[in-house]
Design goal:
Elements (H helix, E strand, L loop, with lengths): L12 H10 L4 H27 L5 H15 L1 H12 L5 H14 L3 H34 L4 E6 L2 E6 L8 E4 L9 E5 L2 E4 L1 H4 L5 E3 L4 E2 L4 E2 L4 E5 L7 H14 L3 H6 L4 H21 L14 H11 L3 H20 L2 E3 L2 H7 L4 E5 H5 L5 E9 L2 H12 L5 H12 L8 E6 L3 E6 L2 E6 L1 H4 L19 E7 L2 E8 L6 H10 L3 E5 L4 H11 L4 E2 L4 H13 L4 E5 L5 H6 L2 E5 L5 H6 L2 E3 L5 H37 L5 H20 L9
Parallel strand pairs: 11-18, 11-20, 18-19, 20-21, 21-22
Antiparallel strand pairs: 1-2, 1-3, 3-9, 4-7, 4-9, 5-6, 5-8, 10-22, 12-17, 13-14, 14-15, 15-16, 16-17
Helix pairs in contact: 1-6, 1-12, 2-3, 2-6, 3-6, 4-5, 5-6, 5-11, 6-8, 6-12, 6-24, 10-11, 11-23, 11-24, 12-23, 12-24, 13-23, 15-16, 23-24
Length: 655
Amino acid sequence: MIPENTTPEPADCCSRRSAESAAPANDSSWWGRWQGMALRTVLCVVASTLAWWYHEESHSVSTALFMVAYLFGGWDLAQETWNDLLGWRFDTHFLMLLVVPCTAAIGAWGEGALLLVLFSLSATLENFALGRTRRAIEALLRGAPKQALVVEGDQTRELPIEQIVPGMIVRVMPGQSIPIDLRVTEGESSCDESSLTGESLPVSKKVGDEAFSGTLNLQGLMQGVALRKASESTLSRIIHMIEQAQQMRAPSQRLADQFGTRYTAIVLAACSALFLWSWKINQMPVFFSEGHTVSAFYRAMTLLVVASPCALVISVPSAILSAIAYGARHGILFRGGAPIERLHQVTLVALDKTGTLTEGKLRVESSKVFAGSEADFWGAAYAVAQHSTHPIARAVTTECAARKASAYEVKAIENVPGHGMTAWIHGDQVKLGNRAFALPSDISSARFVIPSAEDQLSEMWVTFKDAIGCFVLRDTLREASPKLVAQMQRDGLQVVMLTGDREAAAKAIATAAGLTEYRWGLRPEDKVAAIQEFKNAGHVVAMVGDGVNDAPCLVASDVGIAMGARGSDAAIEQADVVLMNDRLENFIFARDLSHRVHRIMRQNITISLGTMGVMALTTSVCVTMPLFAGVAMHEGSTAVVVINSLRLLWAPRRR
């Protein structure tokens, strides 16, 4: 589902600047580059203005000032063109730079200066717009601590977070950032997770909960065990996803990238044909205008300017990158441009139950050991459950920690999606999962009675050695789910719930959420088959889930959407869109943003193609078309496209 990061080198000035903006860079370097471009633009404007001022008084002074304007205005363009030529690329860089000395050669210094003023201005605006997408990453990086306070017996010492390995005990003081993903073992506090999720409200943390790197410990002293390396932390994963998203291209952008060397050849051929037609057929002066009659070369240069497709090739990436930046700032991570374009086309939404429609914060209502040792039951459950991100396993882990159970040493853990987990403890197998998976096949002949499942409750069975026991858990519907389901249906979407739970539990949640279509008792392969069935029926399908068992569905759907940073690694890695704050309502916001991106891209393409078409036709038909008008329209349309895309950075949210 995630596009491979093997996109070809951009074929034009604008798309290449987009790619360069996506490359890792720190905030100060972006700011310095943007300031440098802005300064050169200002100097170009000042020199051009003075040159026009002295045009009548001193031709030599005016020419010298125009040359200064050419130097500052053409600096960035010349660098980009040189890089193109080194790679044997003859694209719009080459077209734009070619016209500048040509205009000077025919005495049209002012038109060349105007071209460079507008080009450098639009390039500065573009660099500023694309640089804004880096700010989301830099904000996360600035919040990442570099040191961690490690507890070793009665001693503590500070270590670089790169040296932290899973299993180390880390202490976090009030007011400090969480240095690495932790599972809290001592203390209680609340954390500001807005840097990761966009959620402004603090999130309480107690023993058994996870605290994520890059978030802020607001109140109490906490101590926890490191869950993963710094390079694999939630913060690092999010930064990687944003960087990866900025380098993944949308279908419309890949279409625009078809403009390149071949298009440049076509434009140069058209300019040559117009030059020969104007010279031989219209009998116009060859290189230098005579009176009110422009030269054939002047006319060809005008066509060269208006035919350069800079506005067109920046129309899509500027909108996509603005949307990625805005989404990241509000807790929505898009994995590239393709899901942004596809999301507005979705006609059916498939929702997982646990952790998506429901809170996913299951709590253990009761537990019972039917056979064997209670120590074996609790020790095996704690040892294995803490290695899973499934909501049921998290709830069991919290319960075990609250009871101060002693976890056994576990090896060779294996997830069995849709069923449970197996592991080995001192040579004995332990199983955690549903009753069909965990219980022995001959359980009916045992000397004790296994009670029937309660319809609206979830279970986790544990078998280890002679110990057999069960946790009974309850989940609750998200408060916002009924409203969100109703909103999706009003928007014309078909909404279906897919769950592996029992029929009674599925029906209860579906009814409470306002759903009339739901499927229960599904294994991961059954969910994939359902997704494929919907697609075969002509639907564009979005799947929303958070568990390991949802990962295949996310891949099979047209747009895979994972719920939050707390979702499983498998789900997040396979998703096209990640809702970082676990709020289902952000699906509506993401879809609205996709609609706005689609509208703005259409507007941008219409503006760029319309301007190019009208100006090219006018240049070919009207022999008196002034070069400065072509320059103004060409660069003006590029600036309009960039500014239009910037509107996405301040897109309103539906209330």
